[in-house]
């Protein structure tokens, strides 16, 4: 259950408890699962309990994949129930450490924006954009688009003129309604209009904005293809040689992944991804299913389970991003070359 599911459909407190229990069963996925649990707690109104989960992650002896993201979420949550000073200090710390992931920048800036700190929000969006995007003349990675869109929105609210970064945001925006319309501060006044045409136009804009927001923040679980790195595949076939019929060689395995994903994409299947398997994880999954690891029908189930646990990486990689196979070359120069 995703945290954006309407409250009338899901009991957020119960879902948070379920995710906490699942995190205990899969400690390697605890960060992802506990962050989702904290989101449900926030939606349930139990913000102190959400902070407790964020603190639990930050104090964990296991290294976090994205500690800056956890701190940003904690700051945003704290500010919502009266801990403004602590939230500001955390946000300032995030800006000082300059994380190389756009998500903490976006969350910190939006926290400032939601509390009418528009100048500070614009500065934070700008710092993140300058750090993570080569320049306003360069094509940015898709993951950095929220930085550009947020910056554009806040500057529009401040009444500032367009600059090169705003132009870049307009360029990468693909929605049916332009950013200038979506971010027009006067839109709120049209909601009080008695003119049906104005109200209908504003509803159309809001639908477009909500659709883009939900698509960016709450993607459904992807259709995932299972990838075995070379050492893992060698270990798998050594332990279970009958699976060699599924994996004749590692190069052929990689080629099959790419061709399968391209075939799915050409058939119109959306939201494709790749999950990376490990032998211990696969064996544990087989045991949980009371099935032998030699059963080839278990492999797609394993891939689906990894995707449901948030382990999928979107395919295809964006322009300039590394290839999914892990060799270190850009995707367009590796499996995406043809």
Automatic annotation (TrEMBL):
Protein name: SEC-C domain-containing protein
